[in-house]
Amino acid sequence: MFPDLFRDDVFTLETARLFLRWPKAKDVATLCVEAGDRRVAESHAVIPHPYRPEDAVAFVSEARSQNLEGRGLYLAITARKDQERLLGVASLRQRPTGEVSLGYWLGVSHWGKGYATEAAQALLDAAFLYTNAPAIIAGVRVTNDRSRAVLERCGFQYVGSGMSQRPAWGDTVHTDEYRLSRRLWASLKGWRAPLPTERPEFRESA
Ligand SMILES: CC(C)(COP(=O)(O)OP(=O)(O)OC[C@H]1O[C@@H](n2cnc3c(N)ncnc32)[C@H](O)[C@@H]1OP(=O)(O)O)[C@@H](O)C(=O)NCCC(=O)NCCS
To answer: Best substitution site from 17, 111, 153 to test ligand 1's pocket, by max atoms within 8 Å of Cβ?
Structure first.
């Protein structure tokens, strides 16, 4: 699904304030502190709580495997001026339906600075520029106003509600589903990116 470009750990994204890179073993201690905060875990479907060092090790290993195999793109969010210290994680993941979903979280002390929106927008740009995904989707717990605001700032549109399982918590919660189409993303960027069907590999042979 994801291009070779994403599948090499030299792949990074830079924004005005942030540097996004592959997670690595050295992130484990910071992951334990940041993802270990209940306020982060309880809004997230797959972060367990309590969060043990082995959970952080498993996350880094699984994220790197998915990146390497082109099944996902998990990036540590860091500041440009300190690219070692993880502030949170942003990800693109292929769902079993084939759709690509966006995810993110930040350590609580990094909330309220616009970092999640900045990281999400960089990941969305990469997704639409380097893959053929017609749209990116995201699910958010109905009680998660902060995450909903991030999606709306990125241009996502509400498409419906449902119930989702939270594997880490063993329960089911009400969620809102959001979608950002390639067409809307391109118009928000102020220019028109090629639609997948216009790329040479999709053109019908004469
Ligand atoms: C979801 C989550 C990442 C959102 O974090 P956030 O800090 O609210 O979002 P952003 O980083 O985009 O910051 C937006 C806030 O920064 C403010 N801000 C400050 N400087 C800013 C700047 N330069 N640019 C943009 N926003 C800025 C905005 O006004 C906004 O403030 P507000 O919340 O008072 O309206 C965070 O709450 C989180 O990690 N939650 C737990 C995990 C989770 O829910 N993940 C998503 C699962 S669906």
So the answer is: 111
105 close to ligand 1 (CB < 6 Angstrom): yes
The first and second tokens of residue 79, run together, are 């500041």
pLDDT in tens, 99-149: 999 999 999 999 999 999 999 999 999 999 999 999 999 999 999 999 999
Ligand 1 centroid to Cα of residue 199, in Å, is 35
How far is the centre of ligand 1, averaged over its atoms, from the C-alpha of 109 (Å)? 11
Confidence of residue 168 (pLDDT cuts 50, 70, 90): confident
The first and second tokens of residue 52, run together, are 């043990």
Structure tokens of 73?
């793109």
For the stretch 38-73, pLDDT in tens is 999 999 989 999 999 999 999 999 999 999 999 999
**Domain 4-202 CATH superfamily:** Gcn5-related N-acetyltransferase (GNAT) (3.40.630.30)
List the chain domain ranges: 4-202
DSSP-assigned letters across all residues of 47-111? --SS--HHHHHHHHHHHHHHHHHTSEEEEEEEETTBSSS--EEEEEEE-TTS-EEEEEEE-GGGT
